[in-house]
Amino acid sequence: KFYMIFDVLEEDKEAVDSYEEFRRLPENFQKEYLKLKEKSSKNTPKGSGIVKFPLRAIVESGLGLLNELEKEEYISVPETEYVSENSFFVRIYGNELESEFINKDMLLIDPESCGDLYLMNNKICVLRYNNDLFLRRIEYFKEVVILRCINNRLNPIVITGENIEKLQCIGRVR
Fold first, then answer.
1. Cβ atoms within 10 A of the Cβ of 38, count?
2. Sign for the pseudo-dihedral over CA of 151, 154, 160, 166
3. In degrees rounded to 5, what are phi and psi of residue 152?
4. Residue 61 per-residue DSSP state
5. What is the C-alpha separation between 105 and 13, in angstroms, rounded?
6. Contact 118, 173 (CB under 8 A)
7. Cβ(58)–Cβ(88) under 8 Å?
8. What pLDDT was estimated at residue 98?
9. Strand residue runs (E) in 60-103
């Protein structure tokens, strides 16, 4: 970061970090945030319309595996009716999930948008299977569930029969 080279005030470092965090938010959240910020500057009480969600995990490998974080940090986003208050963020590190997601993307995961597997067909979700967390696209076919790697670089995980009951949807990417 440039401020490691130059002598920069601590408050300016925080402003730069906040801006970098803002840039990693999905574009629709950025637009909504800027609208709310504009409204709040016009006699709206500070802080209204903004919610904080925890950053709970990161995706670091091409396997689509998630690593849960020990220490949570919080990301502020505009309040919206489309996500639950139990939502959380996942950050992508690396380019293994391109073209859908790129390095340092932040995905908002909504646990309350998980439903029956047939309703989750073709949705990207955080899933727990055999004690591992995955970020995968679900494909549902009656007695078979396929967890497909987002960029199709890896073989899919095929789950059948009683093993389907071991699959848990943690949340859906919003």
1. 10
2. negative
3. 60, 20
4. S
5. 21
6. no
7. no
8. 73
9. 66-78, 88-92
